[in-house]
Amino acid sequence: MGNRSFNRIQLNVSKPGFSLVVDMELPSKGITVLYGPSGSGKTTVLRCIAGLERSPQALVQVGGHTWQDESAGVFLPTYRRSLGYVFQEASLFSHLDVAGNLEFARRRATPRMDGSPLLTPEFAIQTLGLSKLLHRRTTDLSGGERQRVAIARALATNPQILLLDEPLASLDEARRREVLPWLEQLGSELQIPMVYVSHATEEVTRLADTLVVLEQGRVMVIGPVDTVLSQVEPVIRLGGETASLVTGRVISHDPQWHLSEIAFDGGTFWVPDAKLQTGQWVRLRVLARDVSIATQAPSGSSIQNTVACTVAQILPDQQPAQALVRLDVSGTALWARLTRRAVQQLQLQPGMHVWAQVKAMALTQ
Ligand SMILES: Nc1ncnc2c1ncn2[C@@H]1O[C@H](COP(=O)(O)OP(=O)(O)OP(=O)(O)O)[C@@H](O)[C@H]1O
């Protein structure tokens, strides 16, 4: 038995008109989102990890166990790989109620070779909020409830990895918003890796701990989500927008104006109070186009969120009239999108001390 935290995925797949070459190490827990345009190979990666598709040159090691090592002639079929797989559409047993579906999975649960505790149906029921639905027929569930049951059923087999292929894609906006908090909670409580395929910006910013950006079968970048979004080469545009992800903690509330104060490395921001608890960690998505720069401490401005920072880098934007400025707010990266004329007029240079004014930001959790 190997190191439990070791998850190595090396794949080399060729299909007519498409090749996939991937070599990545996945963290031992938390949510790794595979993000990329349609046809970039996200589902192929999941299917190869699951053994549903065989990559002719592959090394797949999960939780320290080798599931596939073509150089040594090892290929475990899917049923011998300890994994949970959640598809876009939940395929639940309609002749069983929710409890029956979970019980079916529990009977298939395999004990861990290293003796670590089983992921029990009780854990799945609690973490996905299913206790009131246990005796419901699966045909009487909403789409969001069905997906929560599908995830719980995948967990109840005690897998070493949970693979989710766009699990919210078949749901409408309201149902997606209903399921997202459960996925967030699962990501923080589950002690196994989750690999989550998505091309939805909101799912990336809310769920990803690690972000893998795939393009045309190649890993463009992999790393902690905030680091990936703040990096320069290539600039990652989720949903076509350059944005920064700022992680902070709620430190105070201003009930009179319905605002909450979020502290992060380098400063604080006020956001509309969304029933946040003091001490709670939140993520803020700040679009580059909502950040402006002043060379002197602004006064008499309507913009509430101003932080002192340093110009780290100035890059051309995709649009020729604009530039992207990467700001360093005591370690937190913030992108600003300005016209190139403004960059010239303010004589912005790397190393300059400036103030960033943030017009708007979105709480992502
Ligand atoms: N059975 C197949 N035979 C030939 N090509 C295939 C086959 N299955 C998938 N492909 C091709 O492999 C490429 C990657 O497909 P894949 O489904 O992994 O992408 P994806 O990033 O998950 O896309 P989407 O977001 O649309 O689901 C695509 O170009 C697709 O057309």
Notes on the protein architecture:
The protein has 365 residues and is of the alpha+beta class. The chain is 21% helix and 37% strand. It has eight helices and 22 strands. A six-stranded mixed beta sheet has the order 7-8-9-3-10-11, with helices on both faces. A hairpin with a 2-residue loop joins strand 4 (59-62) and strand 5 (65-69). The radius of gyration is 23 Å and the shape is globular. It starts with 7 loop residues before the first strand and ends with a strand.
Topology:
Layout: E1 8-15, E2 18-25, E3 30-35, H1 42-50, E4 59-62, E5 65-69, E6 74-75, E7 83-86, H2 98-107, H3 121-127, H4 143-155, E8 161-165, H5 173-189, E9 193-198, H6 201-207, E10 210-215, E11 218-224, H7 225-230, E12 237-238, E13 241-254, E14 259-264, E15 267-272, E16 281-287, E17 291-294, E18 305-316, E19 322-329, E20 332-339, H8 340-345, E21 353-358, E22 362-363
Parallel strand pairs: 3-9, 3-10, 7-8, 8-9
Antiparallel strand pairs: 1-2, 1-4, 4-5, 5-6, 10-11, 12-13, 13-14, 13-16, 14-15, 16-22, 17-21, 18-19, 18-21, 19-20
Helix pairs in contact: 2-4, 3-4, 4-5
Residues 15-16, 18, 36, 38-44, 199 line the site of adenosine-5'-triphosphate (ATP).
